[in-house]
Amino acid sequence: MPSFARSHRVAVIGGGISGLAAAHQLLKLDPSLDVTLYESGDRIGGVIKTTRKDGFLIEGAADNFITTSPTAIDLCKDLGLGDELIQTNSGGGGAMVVSRGKLEPIPPGFMVMAPSRLWPILATKILSPMGKLRSGMEVFVPRKKQTDDESLRSFICRRFGTEMFERLVQPLVGGIYTADPTRLSVAATMPRFLDMERDHGSLIRGMMAGRRKKKHSSENRGGARYSQFMTLRGGMSRLIDALGNSLPSDNVRLNSRVSDLSKDDDGWLIRTEDGQASHADAVIVASPANHASAMLRRVDTKMARRLSNIQYASCAVVSLAFRRDQIKTVIDSFGFVVPHIENHFILSCSFSSEKYDGRAPDGTILMRVFIGGAMQPGLLRMPDQQLIELAHWELAKLMDIEGEPILRHITRQTHAMPQYHVGHKQRIAEINEQLEHHPTLALAGSSLSGVGVPGCIESGQKAAARVIAGLQRDLVERLEAGKFQCSI
Q1: Rounded distance, CA 368 to CA 225, Å?
Q2: How far apart are CA 430 and CA 449, in angstroms?
Q3: Which residues of the chain have pLDDT under 50?
Q4: What was the pLDDT predicted at 1?
Q5: Nearest-angstrom CA–CA distance, 219 and 109
Q6: How far apart are CA 344 and CA 208, in angstroms?
Q7: What pLDDT is attached to residue 2?
Q8: Dist. CA 407–CA 172, nearest whole Å
Q9: Residue 102: how many CA atoms within 13 Å on its side-chain side?
Q10: Which of 38, 51, 158, 228 has its CA 20 to 30 A from that of 236?
Q11: In this predicted structure, what is the pLDDT of residue 4?
């Protein structure tokens, strides 16, 4: 059987979760590949970073992942981390929302954008009588006949009215995407609700139908279905470390920012900002869209232009810890969200140590406060100390907290959250159309279709499968043209 003179060289550009998943999958599918990972920073993992400090476990970005897709769980098990997977604590659950200056529980059965039960909506203090009446009228709102993309605000206001949007949907979606819902595409972010409108004529009827199918789900708390989330006992960096350890150490190049990609007779030419140049037979670009656009400007101008149109939001994550006796408000949820209409300076707060064990010493509670996003970007011009003080001031007011925090920590996520604005799905379809002209090139990352950890992993794995298929196709073409050296 013939063996080829050299193994195929694949470059993965970007050492975040998507790039790491791509590199791992490449070697899993074909161990003979020569895979090199380029990372512009001094560490792999991108925004995911776990910090241990004074007995606390602090997450700088994602602190868990949803399990409705098995992608992340399967990868953890594949890396030998199956025994480290933990679920959310069973003692709490649900989320709160700030309503007229006070924390109120999100109605049971209300899941991000729609209720699956009517009585909790009628009983909640969050909506006015007119707001409740308008929300209930959703069952009589006709389907939208046009198929053009629609903003999330337009979609919810059309079906439920403005109050439901402002008081419940905007803060919940804002907590996920840190986005401006007047620009956010409902088709790119919450397509299942479009399916409900199409299939049931009503989101309420669609949610109720789904609830009847899941009779085992009591949905006693509102917000996210926290039972569907998991994390790793030692923090999300355990996944990053395991992925890094699965790659040959000599093939991970830190502080290597790729400035330019081009094609030549040997395949792909990769240039880094320090003047280094190398070749690869295939390339996976797992960098943020703006960086990917700059790299690909000479390869495909249409693709580069569409990538450059994907915008990003920034936020600060302020972690604060208190002794439990400092907090006068009873904590029986996993966190709260803040509507923009309430005129506060924070987006949301997650009670990290209530969600998962091992996040804080006994007798203390660790909270993560999110500031900024697309709705309040100007706040991020404040220095770190002022952001920490702002987060403390907001928590003290909303939760009746006395005294100073026993821990303070801040992480800035600059241009880290892609914004799926109206037209995003069409933009990605056009990018994929251009990719058809480059079979040994693939894109991966949160800027495409999925901001969560499972979505990023899946995009990396699909990119790996794509370039392997492209290499096989390229190999056949080279053999047919007599351009590939092989030995017997």
Answers
A1: 19
A2: 13
A3: 1-5, 216-218, 484, 486-488
A4: 31
A5: 5
A6: 33
A7: 36
A8: 27
A9: 5
A10: 38
A11: 40
Which H helix or E strand runs over 71?
A: helix 71-78
| Burial call 114-153: b when 16+ CB within 10 Å, e when fewer | bbbbbebbeebebbeeebbebbbebeebeeeeeeebbbbb
Interhelix angle 191-200/203-213, nearest 10 degrees: 100
Q: Are 458 and 72 in contact (CB under 8 A)?
A: no
- Sheet with 258-264: strands ordered across: 258-264, 267-272, 277-280
Q: Look up residue 263 and give its DSSP letter.
A: E
Q: Strands 102-105, 50-53: parallel, antiparallel or unpaired by DSSP?
A: unpaired
What are the structure tokens assigned to 176, written together? 């996920």
Edge-to-edge strands, sheet with 441-443: 252-253, 34-38, 9-13, 282-285, 441-443
Q: Between the CA atoms of 23, 24, 28 and 29, what dihedral angle is there, to the nearest 10 degrees?
A: -30
Quick check: 285 and 444 in contact, CB under 8 A? yes
Here the tokens at position 332 are: 């029986």
Tokens of 279: 């070749």
CA distance 48 to 39: 14
Q: Which long-range contacts (CB under 8 A, 24 or more apart) does 126-132 make?
A: 126/97, 126/99, 126/167, 126/168, 127/163, 127/164, 127/167, 127/168, 128/163, 130/163, 131/161, 131/163, 131/164, 131/167
